[in-house]
């Protein structure tokens, strides 16, 4: 962890909280972290829990920071960025965690070409188990990328891509992905109830099985394909279920769903950026 950069968060909501908590827990000094928000009650609670300095004025915040994390909702990003114009130093590094906003739109709103990293975190970041996609614009150096990796590692694993359009693919896989697994758990709970289990037991079995399978996949040298083969005995119960899934084109269903998310991410980035 590079301890020298002072990091300022604009927006003190859920995601900034997860990031700051992870940073502080990883030993990043709270004196090097600052936040701004419109909500003074929220700022006060962040200050008492995390020990970070707080601001109600975004330009005052960035005057004291090297790295500026844009952690507001996509819908307000344009106005927040425009409000920073005049207070930006050429040495500033910007990091956007907003879903769907392209790097070029952020720079346009900031009023110039600045070093910028666009990221796509996902909700498990809130429990430090996130998967974050990252794209650096041409002005962001390898040192900048190392700083951003160290910051975003506070909420999970980082995956850099060299083309911005791949952020839409990341959105389709890991950004929206937690919901796919929640749907699977919900469906398995309902299926368990149809087979006679009570809801509490069916739900707990589904969630624990998803967690166990995920931990196994994350810790094994075998990929999911081999792990699945390992638990699929010929003519056994698992094979019966897998054949039923595949008879109904399970892989095709997943491919179509992720393609729909990818296309929607592309459409949304055009809509969100289409503001002067
Ligand atoms: N949560 C996730 O799992 C997740 C995953 C991927 C990406 N993201 C991205 O992360 C970003 C933040 O999400 P979040 O869930 O942390 O949102 P959030 O909880 O709503 O936090 C955003 C904060 O920014 C504040 N804010 C609004 N206008 C501001 C301004 N002009 N200056 C300073 N602060 C301002 C908001 O205050 P008010 O509430 O008063 O408006 C709010 O406290 C979003 O762009 C989202 O797309 C989130």
Topology summary:
Elements: E1 7-10, H1 14-25, E2 33-36, H2 40-50, E3 53-55, H3 58-63, E4 67-70, H4 74-82, E5 93-96, H5 103-110, E6 115-120, E7 130-136, H6 142-152, E8 156-160, H7 166-175, H8 177-194, H9 199-219, H10 224-230, H11 237-247, H12 250-273
Helix pairs in contact: 4-5, 7-12, 8-9
Bound molecules: NADP nicotinamide-adenine-dinucleotide phosphate.
Task: Walk me through the structure.
With 276 residues, the protein is an alpha/beta fold. It folds into 2 domains: 7-166, Rossmann fold (3-Layer(aba) Sandwich); 177-266, ProC C-terminal domain-like fold (Orthogonal Bundle), CATH 1.10.3730. 54% of the residues lie in helices and 13% in strands. It is built from 12 helices and 8 strands. Strands 3-2-1-4-5-6-7-8 form an 8-stranded mixed beta sheet, sandwiched between helices. Helix 4 (74-82) runs parallel beside helix 5 (103-110), helix 7 (166-175) crosses helix 12 (250-273) and helix 8 (177-194) packs across helix 9 (199-219). The longest helix is centred in the last third of the chain and has 24 residues, at 250-273. The structure holds NADP nicotinamide-adenine-dinucleotide phosphate. Residues 10-16, 36-39, 42, 58, 71-74, 76, 80, 97-99, 121-123, 125-126 line the site of NADP nicotinamide-adenine-dinucleotide phosphate.
Let me know the CATH homologous superfamily of the largest domain: NAD(P)-binding Rossmann-like Domain
CATH architectural designation of the largest domain: 3-Layer(aba) Sandwich
Largest sheet: 8 strands, mixed
Strand order of the largest sheet: 3-2-1-4-5-6-7-8
Bound molecules: NADP nicotinamide-adenine-dinucleotide phosphate
Q: What is the CATH topology of the largest domain?
A: Rossmann fold
Which secondary-structure class do the elements indicate? alpha/beta
What is the class of the largest domain in the CATH system? Alpha Beta
- Low-pLDDT stretches: none
Number of helices, counting only DSSP H or I runs of 4 residues or more = 12
Shape: elongated
Supply Rg: 21 Å
Helix content: 40-55%
Count of structural domains:
2
* Mean pLDDT across residues: 95
SSE pattern? EHEHEHEHEHEEHEHHHHHH
Q: What fraction strand?
A: 5-15%
The rounded distance between the terminal residues' Cα atoms is 37 Å
Q: How many runs of DSSP E, i.e. beta strands? A: 8
Query: Oligomeric form of this entry?
Result: single chain
